Amino acid sequence: MELDDSMRIEHGHQFTEHHRYIVYRDFSMSPLDMKTLSLIYQPMIGAPAVSLYLLLYHQIDETRTGYSRPDVQRRLLLGLGVGLGETGRRHLIEQTSRLEAVGLLQTHRIALPGGDDMLYEYTLVRPLEPAEFFTNPHFTLLLRDKIGKYAVIALREQFESPAPEELDHAGAGREDLSVPFFEIFRVQPHSADAELEQALAEIATTREPAPVLPPEPSAGIAYGELISGFPQSSANRPFVERLRTDKNGMAVVNYVAYKYELDVVDMRRLLDEPGVFSPDGALLFDELQQRASMFYRQNRKLEEERNRIAGRSVSSAGVPEDAAPDEPPEEVPVSEDDYLPVPESMAGRCDIAQYNFLMRNEPHTRFLKRFFPGAVPAWLDRAFERIDLHYKMPREVINVLIHYILGMSGTQRLSGDFIDKVASNMLARGVDTYEKAIRYVREQEKLEQRMKEAERRPQGAQGAQGGAQGRAWRGGRSGGTRKPAIPIVEQRTGGRQLTPEEMAEALRLASELERES
């Protein structure tokens, strides 16, 4: 196992037996937890990983929770019975990675102020309850691959005692007889002790929860590459140096670089501009994305101008962008129930699972390029960029909108006005997640299908008159007569008869009107 693939260690010297570590846990394992660890987790991750988990667990007294005392990692290597060299470090990294993969461990690297010393924090997590474990499809399938299907079924039965026969009756009623707390105990308001509460709060272990980073794609820009060429005299230099310990900030930098295809030199230039950081040094995501979008459009114009001058307009169309970009370190899977069909323009280049994965995880700038053999039309790129920056629509929802506009038949959709109307309709209906966007597209497909069936359906005798009147009023648009259908006056009986002079005058007027028409 390479160091770069485990625990996200950039260099081997960042994780040695001389570095210090601490252990944190806020639970104490019960006999049921020990049984779950031995019979369920050990077949999946192996005995060495379980041994490391127990070694870390016993760094703190079993009757306590909180932190252990700082110690060097040499103690862990010797406790596992491995060497102190590179082989032992790789073994420790491999076992911690296995524990992290199944959710039993979280590893954090803490940069201490005032020096380059780093402290590793191992946070232990309680094993899942058996009922919760066997409802997790990933863990259940992994355990099945390790010990077999029937062994998993037998193992499930070992962790739960069956209900007695008396409870199997369908008509048995259950009544709650529990007594609430305040019906037995009375706590007087004046008995509250503010000094006691303050003392308990001071004694309690304060621990900042680790920030949970979203599963975003990354351009792979390391902090060392970013700071190495950053200007020393820049006013933003202290803020960029803080990114060394700011995982969220580096994730934002890498995501923006990945989305707009920027390299480390471009990101240095953007981070050097005023207004990208707040006065207290926080990286402003919206401002950075706005400037990266402008930089991206300027680069596109320069590239198109160079291609036009050099006469290489066909070079971009000759190389299809079938190669997928670097996969993100974490991905969001797509359920088969949310699959949308692969468009005809992308048939043969990817299957339905790959297409829906890209639509769920890629930025809209990269997903849009897959529908064109060469460059994306500038007006289309600007239309979706406006939806992203001004409407603040999530990227996966924008990708579903791209599928609805470009991936379905109908050239009337290729207009900026139609794209803006569909986006406005989605925002008005509260479509802000991937699942809601999928339902919206399917509803639109059903609506269009019903409209097509209504147009093809033959009209009966009852609707013939209404259809004739509708065709008469639509004649101006379809090329027919512009005159509306005038209802015929019914003949009335019992009225006054016209005299011969009046009849002759009426015939004369009718003939004149006929000649004028």
Automatic annotation (TrEMBL):
What are the Replicative helicase loading/DNA remodeling protein DnaB N-terminal winged helix domain coordinates in residue numbering?
A: 28-194
Q: Name one Pfam family in it.
A: WHD_DnaB
Q: Please note every region of biased composition (Acidic residues).
A: 323-335
- Where in the sequence does UniProt note compositional bias of the Basic and acidic residues kind? 449-458
**DnaB/C C-terminal domain mapped to chain residues:** 391-440
Per the record, which residues fall in region Disordered? Answer: 307-335, 449-502
Family to which this protein belongs? Belongs to the DnaB/DnaD family.
What is the name of the protein in this document?
Replication initiation/membrane attachment protein
Encoding gene, per UniProt annotation = txxe 2797-dnaB
